[in-house]
C-alpha cells in the first residue's frame, strides 16, 4: 500500500466521522457530545458545517477522530477482560465513558 492510499483512507475516515458526528448530534445532542467527548462549542461548530466545509475539513492529512483513551492500560482493560460473563459491552462502555467524565472534571467543566 502506498502513501497516497493511506491519505485517501484517512480522508474517507474523516468524512465518515464528521457525517456520523452530525447525525448523532442531530438525533440526541447530549448523548452525542458524551460519546464524541466534545463540548458545546465543538458540537455547535460541527452542526454548522455545510457539505463543502465538511469535505474541505475531511481532506486533511491528519485523523480528526482519536481514541478516547490516553492510557493504553485503560484500553487493555476493555479488550482483555478475564471476567467476561457476557457483560463485555457493558464493561467497555463504563470504562470508555469514565474517561470522558474524568477529562471534563480535570477541565473544570463537570
Any overview of this molecule?
With 110 residues, this protein is mainly alpha-helical. It folds into two domains: 1-66, Flagellar transcriptional activator FlhD (Flagellar transcriptional activator fold); 68-110. The chain is flat, with a radius of gyration of 16 Å. 71% of the residues lie in helices and 0% in strands. α1 packs antiparallel against α4 (51-58) and α5 (72-79) packs antiparallel against α6.
Q: What labels describe this entry?
A:
110 residues; mainly alpha; Flagellar transcriptional activator fold; 2 domains; disordered C terminus
Helix and strand topology:
Elements lengths: L2 H25 L1 H8 L3 H9 L2 H8 L13 H8 L8 H20 L3
Helix pairs in contact: 1-2, 1-4, 5-6
Instruction: Estimate nothing, just give the exact number of structural domains.
Output: 2
CATH fold annotation of the largest domain: Flagellar transcriptional activator fold
CA-based gyration radius: 16 Å
Give the name of the CATH architecture of the largest domain: Orthogonal Bundle
What shape does the CA trace take? flat
Largest β-sheet summary? none
Question: Overall mean pLDDT score?
Answer: 80
Strand residues, percent:
under 5%
Give the class-level CATH name of the largest domain. Answer: Mainly Alpha
Low-confidence stretches: 101-110
What is the strand tally? 0
Kindly name the structural category. mainly alpha
SSE pattern: HHHHHH
- Helix proportion: over 70%
Amino acid at each position: 500500500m502506498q502513501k497516497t492510499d493511506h491519505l485517501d483512507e484517512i480522508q474517507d475516515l474523516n468524512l465518515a466521522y464528521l457525517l456520523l458526528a452530525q447525525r448523532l448530534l442531530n438525533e440526541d445532542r447530549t448523548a452525542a457530545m458524551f460519546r464524541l467527548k466534545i463540548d458545546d462549542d465543538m458540537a455547535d461548530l460541527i452542526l454548522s458545517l455545510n457539505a463543502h466545509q465538511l469535505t474541505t475539513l475531511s481532506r486533511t492529512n491528519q485523523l480528526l477522530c482519536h481514541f478516547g483513551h490516553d492510557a493504553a492500560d485503560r484500553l487493555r482493560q476493555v479488550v482483555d477482560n478475564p471476567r467476561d460473563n457476557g457483560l463485555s459491552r457493558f464493561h467497555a462502555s463504563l470504562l470508555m465513558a469514565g474517561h470522558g467524565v474524568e477529562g471534563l472534571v480535570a477541565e473544570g467543566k463537570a
